[in-house]
NAD(P)-dependent oxidoreductase (Cupriavidus basilensis), 287 residues
Amino acid sequence: MSTNQSITIAVLGTGLIGAPVARNLHKQGFRVHAWNRTAAKAKALVADGILAFDSPADALRGADIIMTVLKDGPSIQEALQAAAPALNKGVIWLQLSTVGIESIETLSALAEQHGLVFYDAPVQGTRQPAELAQLIILASGPLEQRAAAQPVFDAIGKRTLWVSEQTGASSRLKLALNNWAFALTHGLAESLALAKGLGVDPALVVDVITGGPMDSGYFQAKAAAILAENYTTSFSIVNAVKDARLVVDAAAQARVQVDAAQAGLQRFERALEAGHGDKDMAASYLA
């Protein structure tokens, strides 16, 4: 039996990121328990050899490591509080969701209350990197259990950046990174929309940028999606609205002026109000 096969990981949240994360953990030999508020999403993993449970408490019972990949801080707090009877002191909790600076402090306090070893570890990457185990993990937390957490991160990502021993440092970094991703998304969407509005083929914008200093894999992927009118979700407008609000709120607390971020949030909100919530955030183009 490999070392991984002796470790049980409970994955709470099996959406666009959580489901491939659970599959990749199983592929690397870990025993994986799964729970999701929409039970069908967890049960869809049974065919991959993953055990699905009807409640967070059942999923956590007997787990050595907890991994949360739910939508937001309140959802995670609710799930962990519901599972309180199954929480054992010393269990490692890897918190992968983007929750913002207030919720990460709440979750850290919850972990301390139950004697859990807490790691603030949001991930950089969307559906495809998650499927390919190419996520970048931004991890913060105590030194003593990092050796136990690292093989888990290695199973789902291509790189782990240990940011700090201080809880919350990773969540702060993630907000700055998300702000950049949103700026790229809106800049591209508006540039293509402007070209079209001016009577120019938007594909020519892509043609000029390709191979130059402004080019990137992200630019090419989102541009291709927009030009093909293919908004298959890697990161939804709904989640973009949630995370953009976290950015704006954090900036206000830090007294940092973020004009572009505020405008970007409004653009995502318009896309949401127009009925594009389940589409990829490249649907900023449709706002």
